Amino acid sequence: MAARKNEKSLVVGLDVGTSKIVAIVGEVQADGNVEVIGLGSHPSRGLKRGVIVDMASTEQAIQRAVEEAELMAGCEIHSVFAGISGNHIRSLNSDGTVAIKDKEVSEGDVDRVLDAARAVPVAADQKILHVLPQEYVIDNQDGIRQPIGMAGVRLEAHVHVVTAALSATQNIGKCVARCGLVIDELIMQPLAASHAVLTDDEKDLGICLVDIGAGTTDIAVFTEGAIRHTACIPIAGDQVTNDIAVALRTPTQHAEDIKIKYACALEQLARSDETIQVPSVGDRTSRRLARQTLAQVVEARYRELFSLVQAELRRSGLESMVAAGLVLTGGASRIEGAGELAEEIFHMPVRLATPQGVSGLSDVVSNAIHATGVGLLLYGSQADYGRAVLTPGGGEAFFDRVRSWFRGEF
């Protein structure tokens, strides 16, 4: 059943990230556009490199983010489109072939050919997350994107199959269920982010999306309008923070603040006369260091990260096909000099992207850190499901939730 709020359809994206949990509520307009009407965010300490390591902490963070989004949107959330990431995610390309039943391709034929394509050997500890059609072939005529209604005898599908660790998907499901919510669909995060930051032209021409978060760097490669390769690298913003903490001998929290305010991924962009204040560990006095010293530490880690992305792109065999270059998004992509360093390493155009395609609180969510959250919202709005939100049962229920939220906050 489609959920309603004043006769309007709502959908919710839940980004379960390493540094933060974000819940975004969107209202799907009659013309299919999405207006963001609620946003809740809470720091996450229960995940490491995209995978849950502390159930109770993650559950609490999800609860807080969802309650905040409910308050802002004035609704009650029952189910969500949730994102999943981590080094356990695997992907492969597969094919399937079936006979067309009535000499004309029906929806049933497409379902059967996708079922045939998903019949690939999967390890016992993995489960299939997505079967994403790349193209269809009817009687040797290839390059078909929408085969329904076309005449033919034999239908073939080329698909991209994404699998994830069973335990990781179950743990996210359990955390969400303990918050009284249902997962409509679990979506791989780079696939979600691609809905928010990539244009159709880029997907057609060939593009590599690099989503640099706190715990993981997610990669998705598109050519000819379809997804061809996905991967996850377990190095991202947290490693940069850790490097700064170790090299400058400063507590992790201060290292994070220094990274956000002063870090630069290209040493030559930092002026030699610039200095920064660095708090010391314990009760020692803080020191002043050259910003170039910080840039050296940060540049070394970003060089390693981009080299690993380049190696992954080469391994996929698609490096020569990404004519539109790279799109960088995610919180750790906002660092000064990241785009310039990527251009130097990849020798191709690099664009820094923020989420597009939504209205409403767009000034709040038009930030690279919300790329996955907005992408989940857009993915959910295009899904065939009923919408996932209901209004409160009555005024009392709503104010009870407001009171409990304030008690939790203060």
UniProtKB/TrEMBL annotation:
- Which BP terms does GO give this entry? FtsZ-dependent cytokinesis
Where would I find the SHS2 domain in this sequence?
Answer: 11-197
List cellular component terms (GO): cell division site; cytoplasmic side of plasma membrane
Which compartment or compartments is the protein found in?
Cell membrane
Tell me the InterPro entries matching this sequence. ATPase_NBD, Cell_div_FtsA, FtsA/MreB, SHS2_FtsA
UniProt keyword annotations, A-Z: Cell cycle, Cell division, Cell membrane, Membrane
Q: How does it sit in the membrane?
A: Peripheral membrane protein
Functional description taken from the UniProt entry = Cell division protein that is involved in the assembly of the Z ring. May serve as a membrane anchor for the Z ring.
Q: State the HAMAP family in the record.
A: FtsA
Q: How does it assemble?
A: Self-interacts. Interacts with FtsZ.
Q: Which family does it belong to?
A: Belongs to the FtsA/MreB family.
Identify this protein by name. Answer: Cell division protein FtsA
Identify the species of origin: Elongatibacter sediminis
The encoding gene is ftsA
